[in-house]
């Protein structure tokens, strides 16, 4: 007898992000295990849902593309099929989708939210009661989870470990992120113009076309295309200034042969606790100093340390935790 798991998120798969990548990974994993059947209910994953109106809502220093009013008939069909409903970022589904209470839920919280928002959520969630278990993807998102349930389990964002990877032999700097102020593309442009890096290669993966004589820009590449782009550089720069709860691109970069250098946000340092390399947030001189002090002979060794540490985010290892929740709700 198989267990039917419904993965549910308000975020549109037409605008790809970290939450969507995790949902895809979980779907792919469960789909290969005979004891589970899996479906995804989200905009961009079903033709009928693609017709639903998407709202681009400014939130948490970003713009989230969310489905507030899904097709009710289809929603009921999916819910009636499910034994367990795994909701990623439950705020919108709980308040707008009218989730029924006679279903077993797993709520996974991804975002790190401002204390004022957390206070409001705690008040709102008192109106709802579910047969549920809460999880959070990072230390920074734990308080978000605790607004809904009085306890929550840490199950971090996951990645399929690339066992054949080695440190990239191509010299260059990589930026990944939407054109949002908090992603700090401005520092990447400044770095590309800096006298110390005139002969360096600069590549950006982003969501809008940006004209630059120096920076090679890729707009919304596919996952397979991203893997090829990683081969063109050996240092990934996470320059973000705020509002981060994890940093899945750090795992992706290291898992594809790039050394990760990040701002000293707690969220980033918590991803690579033992092997992080950081510069002072919002301090361009600190970034220059960190990069200038890296000797080429040690880059591969530093990357190796990061690669060994990301193994704790292995998909197979952490999915066992979710499976334990699914089967014991």
Topology of this protein?
Elements: E1 3-8, H1 18-31, E2 36-41, H2 47-50, E3 54-59, E4 62-67, H3 72-81, E5 84-88, H4 91-96, E6 104-109, H5 115-125, E7 131-136, H6 142-146, E8 153-154, E9 173-176, H7 185-193, E10 202-206, E11 215-219, H8 223-230, E12 235-238, H9 248-254, E13 259-263, H10 266-271, E14 278-279, H11 284-292, H12 296-310, H13 315-328
Parallel strand pairs: 1-2, 1-5, 5-6, 6-7, 7-8, 9-10, 9-12, 10-11, 12-13, 13-14
Antiparallel strand pairs: 3-4
What does this structure look like?
The relative contact order is 0.12. Helices cover 36% and strands 21% of the residues. It is α/β, with parallel strands linked by helices and 329 residues long.
Task: Quote the average pLDDT.
Answer: 94
The H-and-E topology, N to C, reads as EHEHEEHEHEHEHEEHEEHEHEHEHHH
Query: What is the strand tally?
Result: 14
How large is the share of residues in beta strands? 15-25%
What is the molecular shape?
Answer: globular
State Rg: 20 Å
Major beta-sheet overview: 6 strands, parallel
Low-confidence residue ranges: none
| C-alpha end-to-end distance | 16 Å
Features:
single chain; 329 residues; six-stranded parallel sheet; 14 strands; 13 helices; alpha/beta
Short description:
The chain has 329 residues and is α/β, with parallel strands linked by helices. The chain is built from 13 helices and 14 strands.
């Amino acid at each position: 007898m198989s267990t039917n798991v419904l993965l549910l998120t308000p975020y549109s798969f037409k605008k790809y992000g970290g939450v969507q990548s995790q949902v895809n990974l979980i779907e792919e994993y469960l789909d290969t295990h005979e004891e589970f059947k899996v479906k995804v209910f989200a905009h961009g994953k079903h033709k009928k849902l693609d017709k639903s109106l998407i709202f681009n809502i400014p939130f948490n220093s970003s713009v989230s593309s969310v489905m507030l009013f899904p097709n009710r008939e289809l929603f009921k069909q999916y819910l009636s099929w499910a034994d367990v409903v795994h909701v990623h970022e439950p705020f919108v589904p709980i308040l707008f989708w009218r989730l029924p209470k006679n279903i077993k839920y797993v709520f996974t919280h991804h975002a790190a939210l401002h204390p004022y928002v957390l206070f409001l959520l705690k008040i709102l969630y008192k109106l709802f009661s579910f047969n549920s278990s809460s999880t959070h993807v990072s230390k920074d998102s734990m308080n978000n989870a605790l607004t809904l349930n009085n306890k929550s389990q840490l199950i971090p964002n996951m990645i399929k470990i690339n066992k054949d990877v080695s440190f990239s032999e191509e010299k260059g700097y990589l930026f990944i992120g939407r054109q949002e102020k908090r992603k700090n593309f401005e520092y990447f442009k400044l770095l590309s113009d800096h006298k110390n890096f005139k002969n360096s290669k600069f590549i950006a993966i982003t969501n809008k076309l940006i004209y630059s004589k120096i920076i090679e820009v890729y707009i919304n590449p596919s996952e397979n295309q991203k893997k090829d782009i990683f081969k063109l550089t050996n240092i990934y720069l996470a320059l973000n200034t705020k509002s981060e709860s994890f940093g899945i691109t750090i795992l992706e970069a290291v898992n594809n042969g790039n050394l990760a250098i990040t701002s000293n946000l707690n969220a980033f340092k918590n991803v690579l606790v033992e092997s992080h390399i950081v510069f002072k947030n919002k301090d361009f001189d600190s970034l220059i100093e960190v990069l200038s002090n890296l000797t080429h002979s040690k880059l591969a060794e530093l990357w190796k340390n990061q690669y060994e540490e990301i193994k704790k985010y292995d998909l197979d290892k952490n999915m066992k935790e979710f499976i334990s929740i699914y089967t014991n709700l």
